[in-house]
Each structure stands twice: as structure tokens, then as C-alpha cells.
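Q: Please design a sequence for this.
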């Protein structure tokens, strides 16, 4: 039986150079975002992860190279057309004061609205389905400001889902959240990719969570992509040392097979506490 050919990437960056004022951050970066998968950008602070994501999202104009969306330079498309195809959740988004969850999620419908056609049945359906998928329907009429950090982040993800794009870029969506909330959010994003065919590009900081949930890992350092590929190929002790200057063992999760890094301890093993009986034998009082 012939194999099914892989989908060609819809979003690519070619020889990208970008930065801020006179400081160049990206230096000749090539990246093709794998279709229907979760691709995670990893690297130390200042390596260019967020800059690359912003450049791919058209929020930062490259000084050289180009970003292609569906085979065409993204800067030759108008903003509304790009927003109908590509959604982005920036790092630490701020919510206008007093906005309800339903109103926030409804903002994701702006690219599809026209002056003469607003709040259609299609908009209502998209908002309802996005809130249900992100599990925020119960908060629909509450102020976003009154919610916890994890609940707010789910509301922002629901807004991006209401945009109904196949491509979603998220810059550190789990930052400042408790571990359980991070895992819940990554489970949600994993279902989007693997059950609904969405293409996701994420910037993450937690190495083990990235290795556990990514289909493709991209490791960056000093504005360059050092290595990329499947987690089992990329997440190695050698690469962790080279990219993060981290000395670590890389083990395999016995349940999922995902690689896990365990940093080397530099202070040696912790001394064992003596039992009460041993201390009594030494003539010490409690």
C-alpha cells in the first residue's frame, strides 16, 4: 500500500534576519512549521525564540529573508487575510478592563466580520464552540479580571480558537502557571493538533514539558537554529550541554517513552539522617 505523502508546510521562514533597532537577534534562520503537529521552540533567554515567532506571525518585519504563508510572502497579504489564516497568542496578553469572557472570546471573530455583517449565527457558533473546547463556558458572563491565571489563559486560547485558523502561534502560554495548570493547557493544545489537525508553534521554557508534548523540537542559541527534529533525536545530553550549557542525564519515561532530563548535582549526594536508635547508641539525647 503506498504511503500517504506528508502535508507541505503552509508557514515557512527563509534566511530570516530580524531584531530590534540596531540589535540583530535572528541571523539567517530557516524554519518550516510541520503541518498538523506541535512544534516547540527551545533555547536559553535571548536565543531568539520569541523573535522568531513574532517574525513568523508578521508582528515583526525581518531585515532580510522572508516569511511565506501558503507559498506567498506574508507581507504581501493584507492584515485581515492573514488573520483569517493565522492566529497568535503573545506572551502575557493584557485584557481590557471589565471585559467578560464571552466578549474576549468574541474578539477572535473580528477578522471574519464586516461593517454590514456582524454577530452572525456563524460567529455565535464559533464563540460557543471555542468556549466549550477551552472549558470556559461556565465563566462566560464573568469578568476576565476576576479569574485565576490558568482560567484567563484558557479564555485567551478560546479567543484564538474562535478565530478558526488552522495555524496557531503561542509565545510562552504556560509561563507563571502552576505545573498542573501547565499540563492541562498542553493537553488541550495536544488535542487541537492530534485530534483536530491544527498546526501549532509554541515557545516554551520547561525542557521536560517541551519534550513530552512536542512532535518537533527546535533548539536555538544566539539567533541560530542549532538542531531540530523529533524529541528523541534532539533532546540529548550533548545538545542540552551545547545549547543550554546544562549538564544532565537524559532518561526515557517508562510509560510514554518521552525523554526526560535530570540535571547533574554538583554538591554530591545528600547525607543520610541517622536513625534514633543509632543516635542513642552514640549516647546522644533527643
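A: Design:
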Amino acid at each position: 500500500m503506498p504511503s500517504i505523502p506528508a502535508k507541505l508546510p503552509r508557514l515557512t521562514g527563509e534566511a530570516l534576519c530580524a531584531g530590534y533597532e540596531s540589535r540583530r537577534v535572528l541571523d539567517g534562520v530557516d524554519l518550516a512549521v510541520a503541518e498538523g503537529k506541535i512544534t516547540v521552540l527551545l533555547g536559553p533567554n535571548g536565543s531568539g525564540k520569541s523573535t522568531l515567532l513574532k517574525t513568523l506571525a508578521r508582528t515583526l518585519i525581518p531585515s532580510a529573508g522572508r516569511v511565506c504563508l501558503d507559498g506567498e510572502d506574508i507581507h504581501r497579504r493584507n492584515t485581515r487575510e492573514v488573520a483569517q489564516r493565522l492566529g497568535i497568542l503573545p506572551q502575557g496578553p493584557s485584557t481590557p478592563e471589565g471585559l467578560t469572557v464571552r466578549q474576549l472570546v468574541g474578539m477572535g471573530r473580528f477578522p471574519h466580520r464586516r461593517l454590514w455583517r456582524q454577530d452572525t449565527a456563524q460567529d455565535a457558533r464559533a464563540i460557543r464552540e471555542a468556549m466549550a473546547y477551552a472549558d470556559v463556558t461556565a465563566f462566560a458572563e464573568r469578568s476576565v479580571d476576576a479569574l485565576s491565571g490558568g482560567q484567563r489563559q484558557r479564555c485567551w486560547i478560546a479567543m484564538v480558537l474562535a478565530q478558526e485558523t488552522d495555524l496557531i502561534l503561542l509565545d510562552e502560554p504556560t509561563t507563571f502557571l502552576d505545573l498542573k495548570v501547565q499540563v492541562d493547557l498542553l493537553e488541550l493544545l495536544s488535542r487541537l493538533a492530534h485530534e483536530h489537525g491544527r498546526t501549532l508553534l509554541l515557545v516554551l521554557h520547561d525542557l521536560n514539558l517541551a519534550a513530552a508534548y512536542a512532535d518537533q523540537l527546535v533548539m536555538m542559541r544566539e539567533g541560530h537554529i542549532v538542531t531540530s527534529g523529533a524529541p528523541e533525536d534532539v533532546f540529548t545530553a550533548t545538545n542540552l550541554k551545547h545549547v543550554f550549557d546544562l549538564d544532565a542525564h537524559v532518561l526515557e519515561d517508562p510509560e510514554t517513552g518521552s525523554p526526560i532530563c535530570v540535571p547533574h548535582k554538583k554538591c554530591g549526594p545528600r547525607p543520610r539522617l541517622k536513625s534514633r536508635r543509632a543516635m542513642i547508641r552514640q549516647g546522644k539525647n533527643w
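Q: Thanks. Anything notable?
A: The chain is about 30% helix and 25% strand. Residues 179-196 form the longest helix (18 residues).
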